[in-house]
């Protein structure tokens, strides 16, 4: 959301990416902690470049709908007439409004608003702030998406004569690959030394996952890539090659990676790759774990690389 400040469609897309299709006001409540719509959602993020501070507030647009009490007897007044009880406690969300701002060195350089509204038949409509043009390329790879066919991105890589670099990355998981091409009907095919090229869709999950990640990095220069459950679809033996390829591509194209995992081997291989093969990258690695505290609130704990390495060596539970 912070990489698409003016795009209120993202508020619905968050749960769509999890496989739950948002279709109305009650679904929009799911964005709020404990379904409490009385407290706006607030995000704040800073970028080291230009000392930029981004802030986003998401406020529910609520209509109070009267509800007839189901007590059929009602309450009799002094002249014997029945009065039915009405409540105004049922809050109906008719949409979400967002306000956003960007400051550089405490000076405001951009601000605006957008909205996501629920219309008839629970259809969602988006009103974007057309004056604001996003500068950051933000991409997200959901855990369930083992493979997305980024034909355009692969085609662009080949046109820029970087196809062999992509081949070298893929060879870290499948050494037989010697070439990659795009063809008709949105097909990406690889040469593994057989009589004909093979659609990459029928290759292993590791190849498809790696291609999805690497092409997204190529397609997001100077941007941000978020990867949910990064190890999904991969055999543990491919994790070291995966991290090597990701870090190398991220460094080349200046892409910041946010990756989540519950897998301890994934964390161990990240530590090993950085420590053994890319020690200059230690200062670029941060690890966060989110835990519930006694007050039933959640708290994030941050580790630099040295603390991260120590926690793994001591067997501290950090997943």
Written overview of the protein:
The protein is an alpha+beta fold. It folds into two domains: 10-66 and 85-131, no CATH class; 140-284, P-loop containing nucleotide triphosphate hydrolases (Rossmann fold, 3-Layer(aba) Sandwich). It contains eight helices and 15 strands. It has helices spanning 10-16, 25-28, 151-159, 163-171, 205-218, 239-253, 264-277, 305-313; strands at residues 41-47, 52-68, 75-76, 82-83, 86-104, 107-118, 124-127, 138-141, 179-182, 188-191, 198-199, 224-227, 256-259, 286-292, 298-304. The strands form five sheets. Strands 1-2-5-6-7 form a five-stranded antiparallel beta sheet. A three-stranded parallel beta sheet has the order 8-12-13, covered by helices on one side. A hairpin with a 5-residue loop joins strand 9 and strand 10. Helix 5 runs parallel beside helix 6 (239-253) and helix 6 packs across helix 7. The longest helix is centred in the last third of the chain and has 15 residues, at 239-253. It is globular. The two termini are 24 Å apart.
């Amino acid at each position: 959301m912070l990489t698409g400040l003016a795009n209120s469609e993202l508020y619905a897309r968050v749960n769509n990416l999890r496989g739950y299709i948002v279709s109305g006001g009650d679904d929009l409540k799911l964005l709020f902690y404990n379904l409490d719509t009385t407290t706006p959602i607030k995000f704040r993020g800073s970028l080291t470049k230009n000392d930029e501070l981004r802030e986003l507030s998401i406020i529910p647009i609520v209509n109070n709908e009267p509800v007839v009490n189901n007590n059929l007897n009602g309450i009799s007044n002094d002249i014997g007439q029945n009065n039915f009880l009405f409540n105004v406690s049922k809050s109906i969300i008719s949409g979400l409004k967002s306000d956003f701002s960007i400051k550089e060195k405490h000076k405001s350089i951009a601000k605006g608003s957008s909205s996501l509204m629920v219309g008839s038949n629970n259809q969602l409509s988006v009103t974007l702030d057309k004056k604001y043009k996003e500068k950051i390329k933000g991409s997200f790879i959901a855990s369930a998406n083992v493979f997305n066919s980024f034909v355009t991105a692969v085609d662009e890589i080949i046109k820029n004569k970087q196809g062999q670099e992509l081949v070298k990355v893929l060879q870290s998981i499948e050494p037989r690959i010697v070439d990659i091409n795009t063809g008709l009907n949105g097909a990406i095919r690889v040469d593994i030394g057989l009589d004909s090229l093979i659609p990459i869709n029928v290759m292993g999950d590791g190849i498809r996952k790696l291609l999805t990640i690497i092409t997204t990095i190529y397609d997001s220069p100077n941007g941000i890539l978020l990867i949910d459950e990064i190890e999904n679809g991969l055999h543990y033996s491919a994790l070291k090659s995966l991290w090597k390829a990701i870090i190398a591509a991220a460094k080349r194209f200046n892409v910041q990676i946010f990756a989540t995992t519950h897998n301890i081997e994934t964390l161990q291989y990240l530590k090993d790759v950085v420590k053994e093969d890319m020690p200059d990258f230690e200062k670029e690695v941060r690890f966060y774990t989110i835990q519930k505290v006694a007050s039933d609130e959640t708290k994030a704990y941050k580790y630099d690389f040295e603390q991260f390495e120590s926690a793994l060596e001591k067997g501290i539970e950090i997943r």
